[in-house]
Design goal:
The protein folds into 3 domains: about 260 residues, 3-Layer(aba) Sandwich (Aldehyde Dehydrogenase, Chain A, domain 1), CATH 3.40.605.10; about 190 residues, Aldehyde Dehydrogenase, Chain A, domain 2; about 25 residues, no CATH class. Helices cover about 45% and strands about 20% of the residues. The chain is built from 18 helices and 19 strands. Strand 6, helix 6 and strand 7 form a beta-alpha-beta unit. The longest helix has 27 residues. The radius of gyration is 26 Å and the shape is globular. The protein binds nicotinamide-adenine-dinucleotide.
């Protein structure tokens, strides 16, 4: 959608929404929200199905991921059609953000699941290794609730779900009400694999449906969305001590050094800010460029932005805002910045040449941190540029935010780039690239500060949907413990001699 409008409730009293394509404003159907009872029943079915699903083991479960992948590969156009209808984005972006990334996530996770989840033997350190054996088991948590947003509706539903599934959990997904059918595609892919009933279900609905899922009898919540909703979910989870992962918003900074390749940096800035019409959690929201190159860099950025084609059909580069509140938010931030002294270098207004929810790709100068466009997440096609006189100033300004999702540094000196990146207080940083962490499962993905709690993807992500259970086996069949009592002075002296021998005399092989 898109444009989502609450309609008359159904005969059964369920809330119903009408959807419209944000690029054309044409109606594209409706959906009913699952209520508390519906969600409760889904979670019960998921709970019943979980032991059987877990019993298949990682290799057995990975087979279903491979079948879902095969279906995705042969139905790419069908998936893109649904996503484009609800979001209005260019087909290339639906392919890149949702379909390509989904294929890679399914394939990579299926290939590695057995290795990541295999029970392990670990060796206790020091003297303990003479007395104890240690086994580590990756046990499923049970039923996982996945709640997803509208900006990457398939990948942000599918990716956490497939990780939870392969770890042996069953999943109930609640996709965004703005893109319900794009989110549901994640479940549709699996429904063609012969997946046992109850293993992966979808509850269409709005925030109330999401809240019902969080409050239901689930064992973990994986949430992707806004900071405000993330906080509410954390509060609800705290009441039942349910673990959660929160992937929240960002206000990512880009630092352009004086030695940067300016064509590459300008290209990166434009892609970073305009990709998915700026509705990208790791989108470039602020640029800090060194004064020596600021003018040339800015001219290159503006030229590239002005060359972008905005549209609703055929070949175009930038789509609409996904839904009305987002368009209003972007307009309000830009208008407020301009009223406070910002200069619009290009764009700066709604694109009324098109019928849909289009905002013109925008570049701003003369901005500062008193403006919401700098201090808040904009989540639109807006790129504010600030000139700085030193890298220290750039780093200080980049870190002057409550968010901490990602960021980028642009320089031809790789070592310097890594060094500057390590000073940025964010979940991840790219050097000479826009934020790409989410697509690299070897790079744990997650935010700091207001940008989230926990990290996801790859081995760490899959194991995050398990309880790592250590099983400790005594090498002497429990005989030592049996001799614990009675305590005596002699026993204490033996312990003290042991402490002195190991850590006092530095017997390193026993430490
Ligand atoms: P949102 O918080 O409004 O909604 C996200 C989901 O939460 C939706 O499915 C919604 O129905 C549901 N929801 C709303 N209220 C709820 C409640 N009380 N309890 C449970 N669920 C509830 O966010 P959005 O507008 O859909 O998404 C945009 C935001 O998501 C942006 O801030 C963006 O940066 C962020 N995001 C973050 C990442 C990341 O990985 N860090 C990725 C994509 C998007």
């Amino acid at each position: 959608m898109a444009i989502v409008r609450e309609a008359e409730p159904t005969a059964a009293g369920r809330r119903r929404y009408e959807l419209a394509n944000p690029a054309t404003l044409a109606g594209i159907g409706s959906f009913e929200c699952a209520g508390v009872q519906d969600v409760t029943e889904m979670v019960e079915r998921a709970r019943e199905a979980q032991p059987g699903w877990a019993a298949l083991g990682p290799a057995g479960r990975a087979r279903y991921l491979r079948r879902a992948l095969a279906h995705l590969v042969s139905h790419q156009d069908d998936l893109v059609d649904v996503i484009v209808r609800e979001s209005g984005k260019p087909r290339t972006e639906a392919l890149m953000i949702d379909v390509f990334a989904a294929a890679d996530a399914l394939s990579h996770t299926a290939r590695n699941a057995e290795r990541w989840l295999r029970p392990e033997r670990a060796r206790p350190h020091g003297v303990l290794r003479f007395t104890k054996k240690l086994h580590l088991q990756y046990q499923p948590l049970g039923v996982v609730g996945v709640i997803s947003p509208w900006n990457g509706p398939l990948i942000l539903s599918l990716n956490p779900a497939l990780q939870a599934l392969v770890a042996g959990n069953t999943v109930v997904l609640k996709p965004s009400e703005v893109t319900p059918y794009s989110g549901k595609l994640a479940v549709d892919l699996f429904s063609r694999t012969g997946l046992p009933e109850g293993v992966f279900q979808v509850a269409l609905g709005d925030g109330s449906t999401g809240a019902a899922l969080v409050d239901s009898d689930i064992d973990k919540v994986h949430f992707t969305g806004s900071v405000a909703t993330g906080r509410r979910i954390a509060e609800s989870c705290a009441k039942r001590l349910v673990p959660y992962t929160l992937e929240l918003g960002g206000n990512d900074a880009m630092i352009v050094c004086e030695d940067a390749d300016l064509d590459a940096a300008a290209g990166g800035a434009v892609t970073g800010a305009m990709f998915n019409t700026g509705q990208y959690c790791c989108g470039t929201e602020r640029v800090y460029v060194m004064q020596e190159v600021a003018q040339e860099f800015t001219e290159k950025v503006v030229a590239r932005v002005e060359a972008l084609r905005q549209g609703a059909s055929g070949s175009f580069d930038v789509g609409p805002m996904c839904f009305e509140p987002q368009l209003d938010k972007v307009s309000a931030q830009v208008d407020q910045a301009v009223a406070s002294g910002a200069t619009v270098l290009t764009g700066g207004e709604r694109n009324t040449d098109l019928d849909g929810l289009f905002y013109r790709p925008t570049v701003l100068a003369d901005v500062d941190h008193s403006m919401a466009v700098m201090s808040e997440e904009t989540f639109g096609p807006v790129l504010p540029i600030v000139t700085v006189s030193s890298i220290d100033e750039a780093v200080k300004l980049a870190n002057d935010t409550t968010y901490g999702l990602a960021g980028s540094v642009w320089t031809t000196d790789e070592q310097r780039g890594v060094q500057i990146a390590s000073r940025m207080h964010t979940g991840s940083v790219s050097v000479n690239d826009m934020a790409v962490t989410y697509g690299i499962p070897e790079a744990p993905f997650g935010g700091r500060g207001d940008s989230g709690v926990g990290q996801a993807n790859g081995k760490l992500g899959v194991r995050g949907f398990t309880h790592i259970q250590p099983i400790i086996v005594d090498r002497f069949g429990g005989k030592q413990t049996a001799q614990q009592y009675p305590y005596s002075r002699q026993g204490e002296r033996t312990i003290q001699r042991l402490i002195k021998a190991i850590w006092g005399r530095g017997l390193r092989r026993f430490t």
